[in-house]
Amino acid sequence: MQNRITELFNIKYPLIQAGMIWASGWKLASAVSNNGGLGIIGAGSMYPEILRVHIQKCKKATDKPFAVNVPMLYPDIDKIIEIIIEEGVQIVFTSAGNPKTWTKHLQSHGIKVVHVVSSVKFALKSQEAGVDAVVAEGFEAGGHNGREETTTFTLIPMVKEQLDIPLIAAGGIATGRGMLAAMVLGADAVQIGSRFVASSEASSHQNFKNKVVEAKEGDTQLTLKELAPVRMLKNKFFNQIQNLYQTAPTKEELISLLGRARAKKGMFEGDMEDGELEIGQISGLIHEIKPAADIIQEIISEFEIAKQEVANF
Prior knowledge:
The structure is a single chain. The protein is an alpha/beta fold. Helix content is about 40%, strand content about 15%.
């Protein structure tokens, strides 16, 4: 399965685990990397020194490549970048910000840089900034999302038409058939988040994992567009948001309801009522919590079977 992405990252499969907050610690990242994918540590929910510990433990747990995901709105971004360089991380995925800010600096230290986007416009800006690859994420994805609400099936071919650098598809992909579909549309690889939340190694709370497995079609929705669009499971907190919208709330009122550490409360501490439960639409296809090794093997096996079926059409 060699292509531009496997060669760029020196990995076996063109399969990347998303750097999700409160789920993507060193255990998950190393497990994915050890089984042929590219594991990612999610720095968005870590203080700088906590990130350092996760990087060091990941280096001990795997001799394979792994990456760190850095939301560029992070308040201690300078310290995060410094730690990444000091610890010798070779691949960084950036998101939620201008790719020009850190790309050249990271690359000057031999680090490959990938930027996450939700539109053709920002994919082109990322290419102009000199990134090594782009993740194009459709609005089916969990967590913070693009305002355009462009679906993955629409976004990938439109970005592919304009882009010269490698393209990674994300949003609504959790199976081998989904992986094949994305690559037929022009992606060089896929980035998978929600499926790995329901893994043994994910650092998210067991209550949250169970909730993901229980999710059905229509159980997630994109909301809070006035702040930062986020897809989450419907629960008591989600209903409070919907009730507040009935009053035509100000941005300040939405911020007040959201409060602080709402995602941590739900996804990491296990409060299924008052927590923010970020997950993708594809959760309706996730029925079991499994080790990352089994998830990867299942996806790759289904990918190969589906590819053969297509070849026989």
